[in-house]
Write a structure and sequence with these properties.
- Helix content is 55%, strand content 8%.
- With 362 residues, it is α+β, with helices and mostly antiparallel strands.
- α1 (2-17) crosses α2 (31-43) and α14 (338-344) packs across α15.
- The chain starts with a helix and ends with a helix.
Length: 362
């Protein structure tokens, strides 16, 4: 698979930064190899971005017309799903606003705006953070009033489906499990606050999103949590790369490093930065701060092993089982990555697993 991985990353970088393919040494590919690249792009949920890269290849290096049409159709479906997602997101924000509630959009469609072609980034669900207990309960009451099927998670977050889209409500902006850092995380939220975006150029509904510093921390912690557990895919790394690229002039690098070290993320960020620069092509000057490891293979191994949130890792046998067993499966996934965790984020991993085990008995 080494050649397939190399080809995927070459095309991904071309699509991510909208430039020509910088290294064609792994081409041409056979039809079987092209199918593997296509399937891998789907597993990593970067189908549209890689398709952008494919379009930059000279004609003699392109895959078959049949595969190109299939790839184009998949990208078109991603675009239509994003338009639908934007409509649902805008309508929900409007409804919450009429209730006197201001939801903060985490990641998702807000991060998509950092791409040259936002509609070609594959979307997942909609994550909202509510800044106070009162707002969280108001929003929850609205969900119950609509008679929607609500699922409660161990950290008090809730999820439900709204017009076919998965929605989650969260009580924490930063996915930080170490209880001794919660107060500091709250101070960061208060200090840096929020920004506002429009999903469309002529849109009228403002969406509240985290400020640049909080946005980067939120994404970093999200990637870390999944890398420690079930696994993480390339899409989340692409989100981080595009966010760094678009926002690097909007915060102070020294302050960002100070915050990272205070949160115990120094070693993790060195690894993450290496992956963003070495494999995704992020310019060094766009990093939150310049520290990076010499080798990103520990993180890349996790990415290749499981794909999007570890769904394709043979060791992750997620089944429709009871809540208790599902929690145990999640704890087992963290146990499999214990060596990685002890090296890059031992304290955070300890508190994540503790939270999971505690949540089993709620």
């Amino acid at each position: 698979m080494e050649k397939i991985h190399a080809a995927l990353l070459v095309l991904l970088r071309a699509g991510l930064w909208e430039r020509e393919v910088e290294d064609s040494s792994c081409f041409p590919l056979t039809e079987a190899e092209w199918k593997q690249v296509y399937l891998l792009s789907r597993q990593q949920t970067v189908t549209g971005i890689v398709f952008q890269g494919v379009q930059s290849l000279p004609e003699e290096l392109l895959p078959s017309e049949l595969l190109l049409v299939r790839w184009m159709a998949e990208t078109d479906a991603i675009e239509r799903k994003n338009r639908r997602m934007n409509q649902v997101l805008t309508s929900l924000v409007k409804m919450f606003t009429t209730l006197g509630v201001c939801p903060v959009l985490q990641k998702g469609q807000g991060v998509a705006l950092f791409y040259e072609k936002p509609l070609w980034r594959e979307c997942g669900d909609i994550d909202f953070y509510f800044g106070s207990e009162q707002e969280f309960e108001k929003a929850r009451h609205f969900v119950r009033r609509c008679k929607l099927r609500e699922e409660k998670m161990a950290d008090r977050s809730i999820s439900y489906a709204w017009k076919g889209v998965e929605i989650e409500h969260h009580t924490r902006l930063l996915d930080l499990h170490n209880p001794f850092l919660r107060h500091y995380a709250g101070q960061l939220t208060h200090r840096y606050g929020y920004s506002h975006i429009l999903l469309e150029e002529n849109g009228e509904t403002e969406i509240t999103v985290p400020s640049p510093v909080l946005n980067l921390l939120l994404q970093s912690l999200h990637i870390l949590k999944h890398a420690l557990g079930w696994g993480i895919g390339l899409r989340q790394l692409c989100d981080m790369a595009r966010t760094c690229y678009m926002l690097h002039q909007e915060f102070d690098a020294a302050e960002m490093k100070k915050i990272s070290l205070r949160l115990g993320l120094g070693r993790w960020h060195r690894l993450l930065h290496a992956c963003l620069v070495n494999h995704l092509g992020l310019p060094m000057e766009c990093l939150p701060y310049p520290d990076r490891a010499s080798d990103a293979s520990p993180l890349l191994d996790i990415i290749w092993r499981g794909g999007n949130f570890g769904q394709y890792d043979a060791g992750n046998r997620r089944q429709a089982v009871s809540l208790w067993k599902r929690k145990w499966q999640t704890a087992s996934a963290f146990r499999r990555n214990m060596g990685f965790a002890f090296r890059y984020a031992p304290k955070e991993c300890f508190w994540i697993v503790s939270s999971l085990l505690k949540g089993q008995f709620k």
